[in-house]
Amino acid sequence: MAELSFGVTEPAEDPPADLDAAMAEVTQLHNACRYDDLMARLPGLILTLGTDRENPVMARRLVWVMYAATFAAKYLGHADLAMLAAQECRATALAVSDEPEWLGMAEFAIVHTVPSEARSLPLRRAAQAIDRLDFAAGHRRAGQVYGMLHLSSAMLSAVDGNGERSRDHLQQAATTAARLGEGNFGQLWFGPTNVGIWRYGVLAELNEGGAAVSLPPMDVSLIGSSNRQATMYADLGRCLAQTRKHDLEAQTALLRAEEIAPQRIRLSPLVRETVGSMLRRARRSAGGRELQALAARIDSA
Questions:
Q1: Number of folded domains in the chain?
Q2: Residue by residue, what is the 3-state secondary structure of 145-166?
Q3: Which of 4, 21, 196, 215 has the most beta carbons within 10 angstroms of its beta carbon?
Q4: Domain finish residue from 206, 239, 266
């Protein structure tokens, strides 16, 4: 990543023997939340793709690989590398500026790497990206990115404590998803199912987790992403834990999330916080052996 940022264009010392196979492997690792294995395979692939960014096919591939690198670095706790990858993702997307979905995808990556202390900056950035994509939101691929940016804005607004604005963005995303149906441009998995997954996260951030109790069960089996599946169970667990009446159900959901994507869940600060709160309650009631084991696995991650 650093080489591309500083304009290095020499071929990689260890280029992939089969570019299509390398792309497929990175996609598989991304969807399986195997971020350490993914990062190990990126250097040669990134440099190989970066030597021919004027080629639209190579540029599109590099945008997606840098997007995958962004979130792998973020979830592994390397915030600086995540920001660098997101910036390179956007720089590459400018090479295919006539396809706005790629630039929108890069902006999505940037929005999710802006430091939390920046507060309003990620919301402004997301709003600008939504405005730029508005003209193309009727197109299937651009519409999926447009919807994802609304989901990001819903979550950021919830974190900011603005429930009304958060629900407005969530509704915009739901409306877009209902029109487009299930999709998977860029491994974003945007559609009605993913909107439902994000709804749990929004409720948890707004401290309205009790509302999840009355929501119908979700079937996430059609989404081929361990990240999305695990996130649904993790955020459902966070919601249920907020009620203080459904800790057993919350524990079951969190353990299911860990089973699906152990690396993703054990490294999640939000899951760590929830498990810690539940564990303190469990200790007072002389229970929580499975919860203690989960907490130990989180601490050792």
A1: 3
A2: HHHHHHHHHHHHHHHCCCHHHH
A3: 4
A4: 206
One domain, residues 251 and 163: no
Residue 58 has pLDDT above 70, yes or no: yes
Asked whether the CA dihedral 220, 221, 222, 226 is positive or negative, the reply is: positive
Question: Which pTM value belongs to this model?
Answer: 0.93
How confident is the prediction for the chain on average, in pLDDT?
92
Residue 215 domain-assigned (yes or no): yes
pLDDT number for residue 6:
40
Which residues of the chain form beta strands (DSSP E)? none
Look at residues 97, 122, 145 and tell me which one is the last residue of a structural domain: 97
Task: Report the pLDDT value the prediction gives residue 5, as an integer from 0 to 100.
Answer: 47
Q: Is-contact 98 59, C-beta < 8 A? A: no
Under 8 Å between Cβ of 69 and 39: yes
Record the tokens describing residue 32, joined without a space: 């399986």
**For residue 269, what are the domain limits?**
208-301
Contact 88, 5 (CB under 8 A): yes
**Are residue 128 and residue 172 in the same domain, yes or no?**
yes
